[in-house]
Amino acid sequence: MPNIAWTLLAATVTALVTTIATGVLVIPRLEARKRRIQEAHTARDTFNSSLLTIISACNRLQSLPLPAADDPDCTEVVRARLAAERERWMQQLDDATRWLIDHVETYAAGWPLGELRTMATRYAAASRMVMISERSEETKVELLAELAGPVQGIYFTYVWNRARNYRRDRAGLAAALARVNALPAPEPTA
To answer: Does an H or E element contain 189, and which?
Structure first.
């Protein structure tokens, strides 16, 4: 009988020490890791949302140009409303590119390949630089759409499409980045 009591006491103490040690040493690290992983996934989701916002706003801006002032088919009220909508869409582009550059370290750092991190960082920087440049609105929209297309393919299409089109999308992004860097900014007007 004393051997059974001694065995039960040893098992109870071992379980108690294991539970306390796990609770003190392991669980806090797992909770911190879980939070970091969740933040990274949330940032990637927001990266995707920002990218879709850029693509959609560019499509809307390209599809609905502002009518000429002497267009007889467009009244002043409609022209003013369309101008307000276009300004709102441009603000969406500004907000999306601002988020991209401000949070690049959060969403880009978790990708396993350095090339993916570099492309995300270069895309965010180029998009923001296009947006804050003195280029015309049409040129900004065209460049942002040209940059966003390959990035969408690289990061957010189905896995088999990513694998199949990775080289093409990477080359498309490189060409778009080269075009952004090659276009001279207009001279500031006094």
So the answer is: none
Residue 145 near residue 58 (C-beta atoms within 8 A): yes
* Alpha helix ranges (H) inside the chain: 2-21, 27-63, 76-102, 104-108, 114-132, 137-155, 159-182
Q: What is the DSSP letter of 112?
A: S
Angstrom CA distances, 104 to 55, 110, 121, 146, stand at 18, 10, 6, 20
**In the numeric block, which tokens belong to residue 155?**
């990061």
Q: Which two tokens stand for residue 184?
A: 């001279």
Q: Report yes or no: 127 and 137 within 8 Å, Cβ to Cβ.
A: no
Nearest alpha-carbon partner for 172 in 144, 190, 136, 146: 146
Q: Would you say 100 and 148 are in contact if contact means Cβ atoms under 8 Å apart?
A: no
Cα–Cα distance, 183 to 45 (Å, whole number): 31
User: Rounded to the nearest 5°, which phi and psi values hold at 64?
Assistant: -120, 80
Long-range Cβ pairs for the range 110-114 (8 Å, 24+): 110/40, 110/44
The string of pLDDT tens digits covering residues 65-109 is 887 777 778 788 888 888 899 999 999 999 999 999 999 988 888
